[in-house]
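for the writeup, i need someone to sanity check this before i put it in the appendix. the sequnce is what the collaborator sent (i think, or maybe the updated version? ugh). structure was predicted straight from it, no edits. if anything looks off just tell me and ill rerun, i have time this weekend
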Amino acid sequence: MFLPNRNALHGEPLDATDAETLGIAGADTVERFLAHRDNHAMTPLHALPALAGELGLAALHVKDEGFRLGLGSFKALGGAYAVFRLVLEEAGKRLGRPVDIEDLDRADVRSVAAKMTFACATDGNHGRSVAQGAELAGARAVIFVHAGVSDGRIAAIARYGAEMVRVDGNYDDSVRQAAQVAAEKGWSVVSDTSWPGYERIPGLVMQGYTAIVREALRQLCEPPTHVFVQAGVGGIAAAVAGHLAIVLGDARPTFIVVEPARAACVVAAARAGHVVKVAHDQPTVMAMLECYEASQVAWRVLARAADAFMAVDEDDAVGAMRRLALPAGSDPVIVAGESGGVGLAGLIRAMAENRADLGLDGKSRVLVINTEGATDPHRYAELVGMSPADVLAGKLVAEATP
């Protein structure tokens, strides 16, 4: 499934609100907040020369978010950041003075935070970020998970002190229930998807993701010519595409959104010209991307800043996981979860079927993002045939072999 962006808005500047959210000043704020996180460090950017040569590319780089802030996923950047912003804004109102990130541990600010409850729906990673942010700020978190979320992912969220609520149905059902319960109880919803009338907080979540782009551009010797990024509701894809469009302008890379064929809600939006709900059929192995309705804000950005949309099959995703775990030549070992290697899966499929459509050739420099490590180690071992520890141990053996 491949669809060039034929939307009338394609190539137009971002909506003013989105440009402010995803622009340079917003990214500066994110970096300032990250500087106050005890375990913040720039995540690795790996070159894969062997795979690039095999595919017929000049260069292939993987930005590895499996190390982000101890949560193993890019989502660590979004939910917690939004929680901090909301706590500080509320504290500023209640205390009658300006409050910033360095005040987060002050007793008067924490007293305000203690009266706040943050709710969200999650497939796993976003909920961990919101729960961690609430714990660090001294607030309460209630996390809604749908029937398909594994026990391992639920336990990973609960360890941050969050109250867990199981919801029948899929991710979209959990989004609706979280919003309903939060409205009844006066809680703040920190969602990574948006809907009419609810856009600012998902925008803050997306703003958090701009740190990935800024780091990658610093780490690369030259900007990429092509970027493949996976999408659930579209937040990470929109954040990356939007920030690249702002900072690189006419020199921005060709941007391709990649989704599971079984949950291709952004492809459906591209085909319809607006956000639509797609039918829920079989679940996808790409658990963190199993979403059936795109975010309104994300689609508004992608309609302008994405160049093509594509979907990959289950085997494509698992194949990318295995290829990263067992690389050829001098390529490094990378542990990618079920959704982490989907951008790479899209690239491999595109090189076989859509090379000419996208202008991919021997001069192309491609960037993909490993959006998660093995956030569910048991599931990773089932799919790859090795535990994450064994995959990394193999790397250590290879490095020690003369």
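The chain has two domains: 2-74+206-400, 79-191. The two ends are 44 Å apart (CA to CA).
thx in advance!!
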